[in-house]
Write a structure and sequence with these properties.
The chain has about 150 residues and is of the alpha+beta class. The protein has 6 helices and 3 strands. The protein folds into 2 domains: about 70 residues, Ribosomal Protein L30, Chain: A (2-Layer Sandwich); about 35 residues, no CATH class. The chain has a 3-stranded antiparallel sheet. Helix 1 crosses helix 2. The N and C termini lie far apart (about 75 Å).
Length: about 150
């Protein structure tokens, strides 16, 4: 038994054991479906009726479908690898992620001199002395060179 996942596809082909009406009734009764759902499934289009099955469970499910008088196809699921699915989900999230609001972008205030007194004191220190106190060393060098 492999670790790949399988899906069961159904397109209303019959095995020929029963008439069309009896096959529809058996299929609806066996899978507990209402008349509109059975009518939709027997419209001639192809539907995936079960996904994420192991190979053994997919075969068991196909046998149940065959007991009702219908045929189905078992296929391995595209991208059934869990790592691949997580990567695809992450890509989808990145693609539809909206940009941050402009109001939520706040500059780092620790890197700016915000008080006028501190600004004046910093200018005096830079102009008169070459040694800048430790508290002012964290400010950008462009701000230090400006004075």
């Amino acid at each position: 038994m492999t670790d790949t996942l399988h899906q069961v596809r159904f397109n209303a082909r019959m095995t020929g054991e029963f008439s069309f009406d009896i096959t529809k009734q058996r299929f609806g009764r066996f899978f507990r479906l209402g008349e509109p759902a059975v009518k939709k499934l027997f419209s001639g289009r192809e539907f995936v009726i079960k996904t994420g099955l192991s190979e053994d469970n997919a075969i068991k499910f196909a046998m149940k479908v065959a007991e009702t008088g219908c045929e189905c196809v078992i296929e391995s699921m595209p991208g059934a690898d869990p790592l691949e699915q997580r990567q695809r989900t992450a890509d989808r999230r990145r693609r539809y992620r909206r940009d941050p609001r402009a109001s939520s972008l706040v500059p780092d205030q620790r890197r700016e001199i915000r008080r006028q007194d501190d600004q004046d004191y910093f200018e005096i220190l830079v102009l008169k002395t070459a040694d800048i106190p430790v508290a002012f060393r964290s400010y950008p060098t462009t701000l230090q060179k400006r004075f």
